[in-house]
Amino acid sequence: METEKRWLKLYPDQIAKNVYYRGDTLPQLLENAAKEYSKHKAIHFMGKEMTFKTLYKQTLKLAEFLQNLGIEKGDRVAVMLPNIPQTVISFYAILQAGGIVVPVNPLYQEREIEFIMKDSGAKVVITLDMLYNRVEKVKEQTDLEHIIVTSIKDYLPFPKNLVYPFIQAKEQGKPPIIQSSKSTHFFTQTMKKNDMQLKEVPINFEEDIAILQYTGGTTGFPKGVILTHQNLIANTSMCRQWLYKMEKGKEAMLAVMPLFHVYGLMTVLVLSVMEVYKMILVPKFDATGLLKTIDKQKPTVFPGAPTIYIGLMNHPDIMKYNLSSIKGAISGSAPLPVEVIEKFEQKTGGKIVEGYGLTETSPVTHVNFLWDNEIVKGSIGVPWPGTDAAIFSLETGEMLPVGEIGELGIKGPQVMKGYWNNEEETNKVLKDGWLLTGDIAYMDEKGYFYIVDRKKDIIIASGFNIYPREIEEILYEHPAVMEASVVGVKDSYRGETVKAFIVLREGMTVNEEELNQFMRRKLASFKVPRIYEFRKELPKTAVGKVLRRQLKKESEEANE
What pTM does this model have? Predict the structure, then answer.
């Protein structure tokens, strides 16, 4: 039963006794940090550092500039930037000005940008010089009135800021020639405003929207998830309680997860300000560069995704770097194979646990314990403080008992208000206070939860339900397999059959027959892949999720 919360006995006293959030708004968190820890370092970016006092001042300047452009309470402002200081400044400035943040993936092309700008009704977008042309081409089809342009070099230390344009031209080509105008502004201009005539905008903690976070859109156009100040702060406070051994004002956060994704936004951007951590910003993932950063900057907290950990784990020189500063690594955004956990801990000495969440839950709902309790490998852990979780029957919708497989439902203060301008889709997933996740799961006797698979990804072969994740876990156990993804493809006899996509470790080989024999020793015959396809890489989202449906679509098109 929901009210029993049988698993609460698992929580350490440090977590169970704490209130999970306060009534501060997101801008207030930064103001608090700037007042109480003014000289503490807020950001490290490629050799340049910024204090919380400076971060707050620059946020106020941009907020005033946005208000002068006409941004009022509830207006949407898009941020299409990688992990750079301007992203952090923009996030808090938009909220300070009364606006709503619309994070946009910098990898998006014109069609995707146009849809999000139209759907959100964004009036202003803050973006990179290299992305300016994409935005300019769709501007007339949207409600965009202003474009604020910045460059990575704007916040680089000397002499990197002088050298960077030459490196950029060599690797990406020269940025477009951009002229300042009534509708195009430079980020550096906004920092020169010193009037500080910022109008205070009252914020309703429970009701006012902080961000419109668009989902991945792998099954058509994405939906805008409405997340309030309460949603994000409640979830961040839960995270703070989970990391109860971390000390306020004394930790360093490795910011490699994209801040335009809600997982990076919450675990890095909001948590770091709430707990006064230094953010070590990494614009893009590069295994060698990340190892050097960890070795030199000594981060203590490392939110990541399986692809990041896999990339580090398979780096030939990983043992040359000192990674011992990391106290806790929390994996999210995609399932973390057991084999990856074991090898990461063995090679780095760091502690890593798997968590679970959705964009619709701000995003985290479950995590394994980092300290003082059993880590159940293969499990997503237990619900965070203040979060209820239950399993519902796919047939009847009734709540199921321990051990039975059904759809995972979530209830808590981190659950979204709904989808932006999409009541029909909202009503499909919000039922009687519960968010139905679309994930198939079960809970064991100890209160730990296990994701079996996505409801839409279940493979039905000869009447049997087959869960791709179970097969992927076994594939990861083979020493030659670096990455694996499993899909169901049409089969004239079985209805569907199992196909596995494999990326091999460098210098290793294995053929279909060898994999087939390996799998048959560990799985029932109806679960064993009938088809194997070897690839150099798998298609992924910006946060490391393998695009399983894209693989399935490619297979279907190849067989037409």
Answer: 0.83
